[in-house]
Design a protein that fits this description.
It contains 19 helices and 21 strands. With 612 residues, the protein is α/β, with parallel strands linked by helices.
Length: 612
């Protein structure tokens, strides 16, 4: 994964109290959300907010001496640069998946839908505006079924997918009935059928991958069964599908099976599905199905619903010949056999395969195996038509057996047990968990919003072993655990805990839409990226993906945070720096920031106004 900068085996840096967050968040609820965020504008949520937050500001800002504010940067220093709003046309700007740039790349193998980030001279260095009329999203679980039109003002899917029950437009909201192309009667009924074959109910299946997810209704309805799905779809003519998913409070990224490897470790997912995703599984010598095999755990399940399954019924609807569809299914069956997947079920529109648990149980014919000895080294690596060898067997399951969820959340991940994560031992792993439990308890005790649906979509930008996410684990929220490509590679262990995440280089834009996260945690991130790329670019990207009135918690060395604070001062964020909870002599400090509510105004000629 590149140069190793920070070892997760070291004692975890504690995310200190959120005294400031509570004060600032409540302050912005009172002065921002009610007045400008849509509450009180016919929204029933207005009545609920006082009950949910219960946050008398002054009584909670109880700063003991060890939590003193750190003095501001010397006033003799040059003032922070004030960043102006971008033009309103950039409201939904996704720097590495922009349409104009995409169309300059080859369409072959979906290359043009992959990540293509702007060069340095083309980077936007302004603040992405929210659309005019933006409203604070509905709280979970209501957000699963309703999204404000003002937040994602795109109606094309309501027409294009009208008969498939994807999404409906009603008044000032979109309603998501839970349907899909292959489950028009609803995701629940579809998942019930899957659960008749796959052990979803007992915790054996926790992590899932949805390739070509649409508006992610499969992932949305799996959540109540304690299954966490990573959904992805390209930014294409199915306008804003991933944006809808995240607005609903469901994990998703912009992504595609194309020419480069998926940004996930090997043996990560307990289950994967293609529900009419229209991925050409047998093309390129089966390369795409081999990539799914790489990220599927030994013993994991693959579900295919849609072409060519049940072709005898649908060949006319699909406008394809019987011979063509029959040949396609035969090729998929042969490829699955080569991958050592055993077919477990085929009925109606659904077929299910299970990957063998180890090499001993796999009597495959001659196959082309991948030559790389690191199946997790995937960032911008070209995808190959080769089979990833199964890991060495441990307890009869290749790679190591996992406990059922939730027990696996704090059990020692097999990668750590066998010493595959550099610098991490069983003892240091347990100590890391202990520290994060302690720190998150402080969050919950001091800030009543932590652990509520106010923070639904959470991101940890430098996730380490996933201790922060594990301590926060709750049906009310989910965490995108990001492992920087220049940090120690811990993402495989994070998945073994039953959490989800992704590899990413923070010198580039993240594969998401603007305004998709409520809370962002950056632990040691800026020390990690010092001298690698501009802090300004990372902070502007954080602003892009953070929702109005969202919160950021930085934890880093004081010299680094002083540089961060100087940039933040010009970003329409309200921020305070405070001492470490162990006292002012600790060089690590805490910077807590809340993004102000503002949105793009009317555009008349060349004059664009912005409202706060």
């Amino acid at each position: 994964m590149g140069t190793k900068h920070n070892s997760p085996g070291n004692k975890a840096r504690s995310p200190v109290s959120i005294f400031v967050v509570l004060g600032l968040c409540c302050f912005f609820y009172l002065l921002g959300a009610w007045r400008k965020g849509g509450f009180g504008k016919g929204s029933s949520i207005a009545v609920e907010i006082p009950k949910q937050t219960d946050c008398p500001v002054m009584s909670t800002l109880n700063f003991e001496p060890q939590h003193n504010y750190v003095p501001e940067i010397d006033s003799s220093e040059p003032k922070a640069k004030v960043f102006k709003p971008c033009d309103a046309q950039y409201t939904d700007y996704t720097p590495c998946q922009e349409q104009d740039r995409a169309m300059t790349f080859p369409r072959e193998n979906m290359n043009y839908r992959e990540r293509h980030c702007p060069p340095e001279e083309e980077k936007l260095r302004c603040l992405i505006p929210a659309p005019r009329g933006y409203l604070t999203p509905f709280s979970w679980p209501k957000s699963r079924d309703y999204v404000y039109y003002a937040n994602v003002p795109h109606k094309s899917l309501t027409v294009e997918k009208a008969v498939q029950n994807w999404v409906q437009f009603q008044g000032n909201v979109f309603k998501f009935p839970g349907g899909g192309t292959m489950f028009p009667q609803g995701a629940d009924a579809y998942i019930d059928e899957l659960a008749s074959v796959i052990p979803i109910a007992d915790g054996s299946v926790r992590t899932a991958l949805d390739t070509g997810c649409g508006v992610a209704s499969w992932g949305a309805y799996l959540l109540k069964r304690n299954v966490l799905a990573m959904s992805f779809a390209p930014k294409d003519n199915h306008e804003a599908q991933v944006q809808f998913a995240l607005e609903r409070g469901v994990p998703a990224i912009i992504g595609v099976l194309g020419t480069i490897s998926l940004p996930y470790p090997s043996s990560a997912f307990d289950m994967a599905q293609c529900s009419r995703c229209l991925i050409p599984w047998t093309s390129n010598d089966g390369m795409y199905l081999m990539e799914v095999d790489r990220v599927l755990r030994p013993g994991g399940y693959w579900i295919l619903s849609g072409p060519p399954i049940n072709w005898k019924t649908y060949y006319r609807t699909w406008k394809r010949s019987k011979e063509d569809l029959k040949a396609e299914q035969r090729n998929i069956e042969e490829l699955a056999e080569l991958l050592c997947w055993e077919k477990k079920y085929e009925k109606g529109d659904i077929a299910i395969w299970r990957k063998k648990v180890n090499a001993k149980s796999c009597q495959r014919k001659s196959a082309k195996f991948c030559k790389s000895d690191d199946a997790d080294n995937v960032w911008y690596k070209k995808m190959e038509a080769c089979i990833t060898p199964l890991p060495d067997a441990m307890n009869e399951i290749a790679g190591g057996e996992l406990k059922k969820f939730p027990d696996r959340l704090f059990a020692v991940p097999p990668r750590i047990a066998r010493g595959s994560v550099s610098g991490v031992t069983t003892e240091s792993y347990h100590e890391d968990n202990k520290q994060w439990k302690k720190h998150v308890n402080v969050y919950r005790r001091i800030n009543r919003l932590i652990g509520t649906t106010r923070y639904r979509n959470i991101m940890d930008m430098n996730a380490g072993l996933g201790g922060f996410a594990a301590a926060l684990e709750s049906p009310k929220s989910w965490v995108m655990n990001v492992v920087p490509t220049i940090a120690e590679n811990t993402l495989g262990a994070i998945y073994e805990r039953g959490l989800i995440g992704i590899y990413h280089d923070w010198c580039e834009g993240f594969s998401t839409y603007p305004r998709t996260y409520d809370l962002i945690h950056a632990n040691g991130l800026f020390s990690l990226y010092q001298n690698r790329c501009e802090f300004v670019d990372i902070l502007l990207e954080m602003d892009r993906i953070l929702r109005p009135e969202g919160t950021v918690i930085f934890r880093d060395e004081v010299d680094v945070l002083n540089k961060v604070a100087k940039v933040v001062g010009g970003m329409r964020w309200d921020a305070k720096m405070m001492d470490h909870d162990d006292g002012p002599l600790v060089p690590e400090k805490i910077l807590v920031a809340v993004k102000q509510y503002w949105h793009g105004g009317s555009n008349e000629g060349n004059n664009t106004s912005y409202d706060e």
